[in-house]
Write a structure and sequence with these properties.
It is built from 14 helices and two strands; from the N terminus they run αααααααββααααααα. It is globular, with a radius of gyration of 19 Å.
Length: 325
Amino acid sequence: MRDWRYRLGEHRGTLLAFVFFILMFAVYASNHPAGFTANVVQTAANKGVLLALIAMAQTFVVLTAGIDLSVGMMLVLTNCLASAIVLGAPAMVGLGVAGVLLAGLVCGAINGAIVIYGRLQPIVTTIATGAIYFGVALAIRPVPGGDVDSDLADAFTGRIWGVVPASLVALLVVVLVIWIPFRRSAIGRAAYAVGSSAAAAYMSGVPVRAASFLVYVLSGLIAAVGGLFLTFITASGEASAANGGSYTLFSIAAAVLGGVSLFGGSGSAIGAIFGALMFRTIGDLLFVFDLEPLWQPLFQGVVLLAAVCLGSVRLFQIRNRLDLF
């Protein structure tokens, strides 16, 4: 019984995000002019999966009580890179995809090395590296353009058996290949321990530096997957500072909505995924109810503020921080 209550409390944020997303999407689909069709689900999935990937990237770092303000710029950089090299013969396309993912890994490793081994604040570091990544993106793609392999793009943005959005399947694969092994590994548990209390984790012999460095590397890798997916959707690359900044802020918002604590040590990437899907559905609801687009940031801000306040209520209720874990 106690184990059941512990599990429920551990995943409460994820479950709430899942329930709210289902309710909101049901309202959206039932009021959409086209109804609940495969096309409506596919379009919503493609938009939601892109933000879900960036929210996952942010979550890895937030779990260690850090923050990565360069995830949006890594998305932009890998988008521009993919629009330049994921083209040609199948072998070249494969090498291009590997190059994009490697670029994300390198960006994440640079962030992690500066923060962990250079002992600089994550906020300052990732603002600076984000500016550098944007500069590189601008050098690759001074004006919007480029292309991507159309067969590969169709495979990831289309439907499987005419029903299931391929983007959701791709997101599931990312969760199974990256998040689940990380969460169940010793280094994953170390990352949670670092987020709970870095000093206590260090005194307990937890590999603090290795865990903290790994989350930045994985964050860069998943941001690169997001950049690749953005290229599949748009079939072009664009070095847009506005897009990079927006995706960075949205990734934090989605993580909070998904129950990830900005204090670190609590939450999951799966919760962040449902938080991202819920955040995207807010905009879709405004569309089906024919509200002015100018209301969207206001409404999203109100929802985000409410989510942060609800999360803070629990902190006021506890007498010992260890009660959270």
